[in-house]
Design a protein that fits this description.
The complex is a heterodimer of chains A (127) and B (111). By secondary structure, chain A is mostly beta strands. Chain A is built from no helices and 11 strands. Helix content of chain B is 0%, strand content 45%. Classes of the chains: A mainly beta (127), B mainly beta (111).
């Protein structure tokens, strides 16, 4: 059974750096094809993908936010950490982490998608 | 502004068939699979359809997905009141070193 849970501050001040931790169970981030991503959702607005780290330490970032984001993993602790610098009130959102599955299906196609999500954590940016 | 375009709202009466569209680009939907998520207020998104038209275990067969070119659709047949939720499409985009993109979401109302 795969579970993920986000943790971190609920309130940060403008210009501060946000550090969020995703603690997961039921899978290993050293397994080929596996990844963990971060997605956020401002109140009443759409989902926005932030970053993704793969089993092999490769990482991808939202091009619009790349300069502010860093994603790392600690396989031994089953954790993925996201840092976002220079926080602004517009960054107020619920932040989710999600398991990205990757596999070859019976037809030889590479399939990959976010299948399990954490419950999310609301981060408010305010002075 | 979301990279995948969805209508902000859709509606139908119980029993009806409703479709929700998702439009992308050649580097997103045109090349990669589309996935759909269902989200109820105050909860995390739930995977509804993956790889264009595959239902995860436990998802009713009333939900189906399709893709053609740079567009995709989610269809819900035999609409039920409990289907009232927000629906999001998502795809990998090969441009700019690769990144995930989501649609702006569609609020489905069951009248």
């Amino acid at each position: 059974q795969i579970t993920l849970k986000e943790s971190g501050p609920t309130l940060v001040k403008p210009t501060q750096t946000l550090t969020l931790t995703c603690t997961f169970s039921g899978f290993s981030l050293s397994t080929s094809g596996v990844g963990v991503g971060w997605i956020r959702q401002p109140p009443g607005k759409a989902l926005e993908w932030l970053a993704l780290i793969y089993w092999d330490d490769d990482a991808r970032y939202n091009p619009s936010l790349k300069s502010r984001l860093t994603i790392t993993k600690d396989t031994s602790k089953n954790q993925v950490v996201l840092t976002m610098t220079n926080m602004d009130p517009v960054d107020t959102a619920t932040y989710y982490c999600a398991h990205r599955l990757g596999y070859y299906d019976n037809s030889g196609y590479w399939r990959y998608y976010f299948d399990y999500w954490g419950q999310g954590t609301l981060v408010t940016v305010s002075s | 502004q979301s990279v995948l375009t969805q209508p902000p709202s859709a509606s139908g009466t119980p029993g009806q068939r409703v479709t929700i569209s998702c439009s992308g680009s050649s580097s997103s939907i045109g090349t990669n699979a589309i996935h759909w998520y269902q989200q109820f207020p105050g909860t995390a998104p739930k995977l509804l359809i993956h790889s264009n038209n595959q239902r995860p275990s436990g998802v009713p067969d009333r939900f189906s997905g399709s893709k053609s070119g740079t567009s995709a659709s989610l269809a819900i047949s035999g609409l039920q009141s409990e289907d009232e939720a927000d629906y999001y499409c998502a795809a990998w985009d090969d441009s700019l070193n690769g990144h995930w993109v989501f649609g702006g979401g569609t609020k489905l109302t069951v009248l």
